[in-house]
What we know:
The chain is α+β, with helices and mostly antiparallel strands.
Amino acid sequence: MTRRTDVLVVGGGVTGVGVARDLAMRGADVVLVERDRLAEGTTGRMHGLLHSGARYAVADPESAEQCIRENAILRDVASHCVEDTGGMFVSLAGDDQEYFQEKLAACEAAGIPTDQVTPDVARQIEPELAETVERAFLVPDAAIDPFRLVAANAASAENHGATILTGHDVTDIDVSGGTVEGVTVATESGDTEEIEAAHVVNAAGPWVDAVLDGLSVDVPVEPAKGAMAVTNSRPVDTVVNRCRPKGEGDILVPHETTAILGTTDEPIDDPDDFDESRREIEFLTEELAEMVPSLTDARLIRSYWGVRPLYDPDADGGDSTATSRDFAVLDHEARDGIAGLTTVLGGKLTTYRLMAERVADEVGDKLDLQRGCRTGTEPLPGSRGEVDVREIMDRYEVRSPVGARTSERLGDRTEDVLDSGSPNPVVCECEAVTAAEIRDAIDTSGPDLGAVRMQTRATMGTCQGGFCSHRLALLLPAEYDQETVWEELEALLAERWRGQRFSLDGDHLSQVALNRALYHLSLNVRQATSERVDLDFERYDGGQPRGELSSGHEGGSQEGTR
Ligand SMILES: Cc1cc2nc3c(=O)[nH]c(=O)nc-3n(C[C@H](O)[C@H](O)[C@H](O)COP(=O)(O)OP(=O)(O)OC[C@H]3O[C@@H](n4cnc5c(N)ncnc54)[C@H](O)[C@@H]3O)c2cc1C
């Protein structure tokens, strides 16, 4: 049976789920298709900064103004995704002091509040700051969790009637007589499906041009890669930015139990095929250690790269740090004579809601939707709940800091998730995640342990899943067969390994060796030629044990890839 919908959204990053939610709230029938899992593209590989706009204030004032407005809105409607860390811009001895003044003036012009502090006060706030800090000012930057934000938007879109299909790859946009009729998708199971749609929104991030392949349409996307590295601790509690014009290796973002070093900015040709090197990670450490010297000896637990879908109508493949962070909504009817097709690209995660609103305004006009935008005021699921952490800790016997971290992540869903009646041990000690949270994520994501990781942060701390990956696998309910459980465990471990391959020194090398011994030597995970030993841990629900993960399974995809 062919599916039919008003709007088909391509891409399950923050832009796509934002568009799906906004249009569903306006009463449209919406289907979102994502080729992989949600937040698997750029959105899951960004820096975690809720911009105040100060970074763009001098070079890109329009983006700066958008950021400060959206920053205030997201603190309100997505409060459980935001940590109010505050931000600081510092200027070191030898840095251009005129630029410091220019930045302060530009922030004021863009409506970004600033508070200049002395170097001593800056070091009281952040004791790890270098002695060479000469000037500093504070701005309302914050940390944001992209996975939680995407999950909340997707849940809200579904609550408003949208359908979200992961593992659905759009292979063609079907056009007849100059009008879009729908799309053809290839599913994970190898089937081909046609989905009819009155309108298609292309929100495929750096892949927007690939989605349009086959149509005579050219979109000005300039993909640019950026490297990031994660420390096992939080040397700063404030977002620390270097106040200088060039934007590489100049920002450190505290994120949950870690901090993220970033970033670089280099044009690439193909978002699916680009070089990742240890040198880029060394560059970040060296540059950022000028602001925070203790980073020289920091334990890096992983590194990762993302690709910006920059919008550049004048793209020439040159310096992409100069490319605008503004976004574009392209109406292909007016532009290319193809009715029923819109592409959205550029922007930031911080401005995703505004981007979605602009897309929904345009599509809403075409489809004659009567309702307007409500995403600026209606909280996302989980946001803005009044959670009494002490009371929750007593009632559900979760101890601090586990209770505090659980309620920070879940917001007003905390009680619903903890109220399962099953025993609730801590599963991931590094990130203080209990079995109840894992079960809740499995309920929404199925057996995909990568999606469970994104939703809960389990396996994302210091040991990188060394002590909890098997526990996640054992919480998969008995309806999933042993083969599925092994495959999911292997995929999770392979993904964790991929991010650690440039962290093979110092203390973290011992951790990687231990993880390998635990999973590869003891359990024979990914040893295609030898038999696995049995796993007979008790299931974490304390009820009937899952039994055993039997021996003899032949694992075996390539090391380091999923
Ligand atoms: C290094 C780096 C650091 C960043 N840091 C920040 C930051 O700190 N703060 C901030 O606000 N912004 C930041 N950004 C920008 C921000 O991450 C992006 O603007 C945003 O995540 C883009 O989201 P998106 O949904 O448009 O794209 P994506 O997240 O890439 O989503 C597109 C989706 O489309 C899917 N797709 C592709 N082709 C198909 C197909 N044929 N069929 C179905 N699905 C398909 C992909 O799998 C993907 O999931 C950063 C970006 C980078 C690269």
